[in-house]
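Write out this protein's structure.
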Amino acid sequence: MTEYERWLNTKLDDPDLTEELKKIQNQPEEINDRFYRNLEFGTGGLRGVIGAGTNRMNVYTVRKATQGLANYLNKHGKSPSVAIAYDSRIKSDVFARESAAVLAANGIQAHIYPWLSPTPTLSYAVRYLHCDAGICITASHNPAKYNGYKAYGSDGCQIALEMADEVLSEINSLDIFDDVKRVNFDDAVKAGTVSYIPDEVIDSFLEEVMKQRVFTEKCEGLKVVYTPLNGTGRVCVTRILDKIGVKDVAVVPEQEFPDGTFATCPFPNPEIKEALQKGLDLCEKVQPDLLLATDPDCDRCGIAVNQHGKFILMSGNEVGVLLLDFIARGRLQNGTMPKNPVAVTTIVSTDMTAAVAKDYGIELRHVLTGFKYIGDQIALLEENGEADRYIFGFEESYGYLSGGYVRDKDAVDASMLICQMAYDYRKKGMTLVDAMDALYQKYGYYENSQVSFGFEGEDGMIQMDRIMENLRANAPKEAAGCRVSGWSDYKTSKRCDGGTMSDILLPKSNVLEYRLENGSKLTVRPSGTEPKIKIYISAMGADKEKSTALVEKLKDMAPGALGIG
């Protein structure tokens, strides 16, 4: 009996799964896509299309993952506890309750939010409630057909590789139907083995966010349009804006309330202009200073700025650089800059950060892509009694954090800081676009972009692996007519500059970087959350037009030089 037949002949708890299995009978490609592998569990947990099969997000893959986590926790401690949160996606509430039911059956206290909540509030709850782990049911900014399962350690950071490997080993030892313990969720609530996280946790979270303010002056008169993109951000973001004095907030009505179908934004990602279109339409009517957008789990934040009546989208790199400069300048002015301050960014984020950090005497640390690595740096500082040295961390994919109260990116914090920054510049007669132009003039015209290539299904995964290994074995000699002067292979931990080899002192990761003799840089990596290969492109020119032209040339020619697309 094949695994598909076993699922088809099993009485499943979710009738949607049985119906789907029946529909794909005699469709070998559809069956194979659902069963050719187990949905991969790693440092990012699980993420996949919702549906039937071992390669899908469903109650059975979620239960199995939770059983693996429970086995790990019971082997490593006594009376463990876990915090759980979920977003607005299809079946997120179901997967959260099922996770709690499995934990309770294994003697583990489960604390679950009674309503959908932003991802950073999960990180906060783990720390506030002194839990041993956390689970957040979310697929972040992916399309509606996806859901996911993020696992967190006791520090509130997404789990490290060692823990992920041990949990995966436990998961792989389990039969998806026979080896998972589970109790009735409602019975567990009555018994007290599952408890609801109280309002005081969110209140405390918002108090900690407020502590990250750069100044205490109220942002009176600032006008904002906000969209939570049908996700979890509405309550926390509007509360924090109210606390800092932003009273004129128009929430995009079509995207105000939770909706896992994301009917008006099929790709609910604030990096994508189409996702912000409803917000931009409302901006044309009400003419705010700023458009704020948070993704469905409210850990990423995108903006558009009113530049003389035209709304200009700003990139994650630009907002990250602006915030670093604003925080550093503000803390120096109000006397709260720590001794030997530290900022953290990723290897694919803009090199402009280094110029700004150097100007302020900030130690800049580069880490791998993924906010957990920024969280690790905060933890290292905390272990050394130097937590106050951390002032800011960001990644180019619209993730920001200015304090150590959580260990994941936080769009509530980012929304507050961006509004404070916009208000501060408005007092000087400047917009954030003006402020960015001033920074370009001061530090140089850094331009950044990326191109992505999708690879669906089993063949797609094989193709992605083949491309990366071919690049690893046959490094390009030039790109867009410019010689490759150096490269870095983060999987082998080797770097080459002008023929000189050195070691990379970061965890191993399937990332390749090529530096061109004109100062441009190409970084290639498979996405950790989607079946894509991404090429990150950065360049610096004598002016904005030249740097933009260089980036566009690299976007056109680099994929061919790298054998992608």
